[in-house]
Amino acid sequence: MTKLAIEAVGLRKSYGHKLVLDGIDLRIPEGSIFSLLGPNGAGKTTTVQLLSTLLRADGGAIRVAGHDPESEPDRVRAAIGVTGQFSAVDDLLTAEENLLLMADLWHLPRAEGRRRAAELLERFDLQDAARKPAATCSGGMRRRLDIAMTLISRPRIIFLDEPTTGLDPRSRRGTWQLIRELVADGVTIFLTTQYLEEADQLADRIAVLDGGRIVAEGTAAELKSRIPGGHVRLQFGDIAELESAAAVLGVLARDDEALTLQVPGDGSTHALRALLDRLDQESIEVEGLSVHTPDLDDVFLALTGQPDGVREVLR
Ligand code: ADP
């Protein structure tokens, strides 16, 4: 069985009368990237704070790196790193000084701190920034420095709260690459992001949080296949074939110029085979076929802010 880096069962949290988490379950295997999505105010940051010992849950059980954040907070803290939306980088210090400060906070021996700082400056391509005040670094460099500072303590589990918010596309891709390299080393990543493409690119599994509950969970592909909007586009050689197919399938969306028909469906092999068999029975020839699945934006819109009835249908 895979070892779980993070496990939560029935997690609950309210602020005063405001119920934020109404019993959520999480199972995150070691060495994987998990992404928690949800609209603003859904409780993503609250979840991160509960898992990282910064907040106490009202109910439920949590295990992080095998330890309970409530009874063994020091053990949990020794295993995790957290980088928030607000950078921990001190602008007046150089990148190297920021890293050494972090090493001091973790009570690393001097020589070990220097060694790890040098290693991280090289690995994160920060040598140019090593001796300049952080204030003069680009946004992408500061974000890399921020993540590097989290890594000084060699955490096995890293919480990344919106790691690329405000970065340009190139720096965002650079950060993604870094995250992938960390996971290749066996680190577990808990990612919150407002960029659905980011979750799509990085996450092994995604959970969507809304109304205090996890309303959907799965791989990006699983989530996409669950919502309407997917279709199969059939390409025909001439208008006569297209007419015959449209008559057989009763399809509404057609493009006579491109000689294509759109058939709603999830594009599963079962559905495709049934579709092609049906046309074959009528001796209608299909020249080409492409499957279009909804993107994560469609998933997000379909799943969040919906009444429970709609969610049930999509689940
Ligand atoms: P997200 O990270 O998904 O945007 P948060 O976890 O920050 O959501 O917040 C969830 C809800 O809890 C929001 O409605 C927010 O206003 C509320 N909230 C967060 N922190 C506090 C707090 N310290 N006191 C009262 N309400 C809070």
UniProtKB/TrEMBL annotation:
It is found in: Cell membrane. Residues 6-236 form the ABC transporter domain. Its main location: membrane. Keywords: Antibiotic resistance, ATP-binding, Cell membrane, Membrane, Nucleotide-binding, Translocase, Transport. One of its GO terms (cellular component) is plasma membrane. GO terms for molecular function: ATP binding; ATP hydrolysis activity. SMART domains: AAA (SM00382). GO terms for biological process: daunorubicin transport; doxorubicin transport; response to antibiotic. Belongs to the ABC transporter superfamily. Drug exporter-1 (DrugE1) (TC 3.A.1.105) family. This is ATP-binding cassette domain-containing protein.
